[in-house]
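Shipment paperwork, digital attachment
Item: protein structure file
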Amino acid sequence: MTNLTLYQFRTSPFCAKVRKILDFKGLDYRVVEVDYLDRKDLLAASGQLIVPALTLESGETIADSDRIATVLDDLYPVPTIFPLEWRGIHLALARYFDGELEDALFRAALPDEIAHYARLGRGHAAFYRLIRERKYGAGFCDVTVRAHDAAMARAHDLLAPLDATLADRAFLLGRIGYADFALYGQLGYLAIGGDLKIPAEMENLRAWYGRVDRIRATLDPET
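Attachment content:
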């Protein structure tokens, strides 16, 4: 039995990526939901304030989802998330998903994420807005919420080619790998409110999301 601890925010797409990789590899792990306002346990464990952070069996705690993924595949290589012949393509796709696509989906999901932190309390909501507006500029949250339709249209345009690609395959490159987990994490933005908001007409993408979501340790050959 492994002894791993994942420090996370539930709404983080990068934490969702790491959770699904751990599930795919069949690893036992404990989840610590970090309080957005009180990160002392995360700081004590990792020496920094960013999630995801993963404490390994050795006691070392590492941060950054890309680094965590690489270390996990080195320590627990079966099943691999980096099929040898496609490793570079998986890494390139993951960087795109965690960059341009992340920006689009984050903006599309911002109303749901604001509502999530509001449910946690006024202090959490205020601090969330402060962090976002320190990064993107004053008034960012309100402006982005008002532009929600445009944000959803941009997300739709970026997701449509992926839906088309998945028409004739179970996973992005045929065999499951790191890019699938990165995309899964980002699409978690569209489930923050509870209902999955991948457009209904994107049946291939919705089916793919379901396949990845059901992964625990080994992939059901029937899926």
